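Ticket #4471: structure export looks truncated?
Reporter: QA, pipeline team
Priority: medium

Steps to reproduce: submit the single chain below to the structure queue and open the exported record.
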Amino acid sequence: MSTLDSNPFAGATVSRSAGRLLYRQLADILVEAMESGRCPVGSVLPSENELCRLFAVSRPVVRQALDVLSQEGRVYRVHGKGTFVAERKLDSLLMQVGTGPERDTIRFRDRLRTRLLERELLVADLELSQRLALNAGAAVVRLLRLRLLDGEPLCLLESYVSSALVPGLLERDLEDRSLYEVLETSFGITIADITRKIEAANLGEQDADLLRANAGEAGLVVTSLATASNGAPLEWSRARYRGDRIALTTHFSPGAGAGA
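Actual output as written to the record:
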């Protein structure tokens, strides 16, 4: 936790004659201070009482401004400690329709790093054998990796592939490499299609520890099934994202007659 050494809002004022809502003016002032670096990520903002004093506004105005910033993911509150500047969410870049965590490694190679936490050969249980269209008891390679964006944990990625498809995969260097890239270049396996399911979930204690978050915090769970051109399952994965570091944006063009 870092505190602000001086007033980062020097010269900024909230005006009742500006024709704009007071809380929105205050929210914009706070955002400008964050984006300029005067209120850096992780720093604690002045208390509600101090913001009231600095801008000569009421506490409801301050609370409304902070509520707006909290909803936008720019700040977060810690009971008994104050309001902190949050790291901005990665809006949609890692969650575009038609891509997935593996393809994103290629698209954002300069910003992403991957740490291999666990690798093992195991026997597929009933659920996993059904997902990968394998016989019960078939051997499966499991990989657990930590994906970091700009040095900060973003998601935990757990992947399963039939061992018969990837002989020797466990011995390969998988640090800072996309699994899909390895599958294609080393095993001649091309991913043709990816189906994803996205769900909200609270982070468990172990996941939260690895993601440098608090247990019980909001997260996203993205399960993906990668298939070949003939529809055969190739890889099944489960990614757990920190909720404060990711946002979803979708784009579509509705056809004629589409309803709201």
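Status: closed, not a bug. The export was complete when the record was re-opened. Leaving a note from the reviewer for reference: Residues 22-35 form the longest helix (14 residues).
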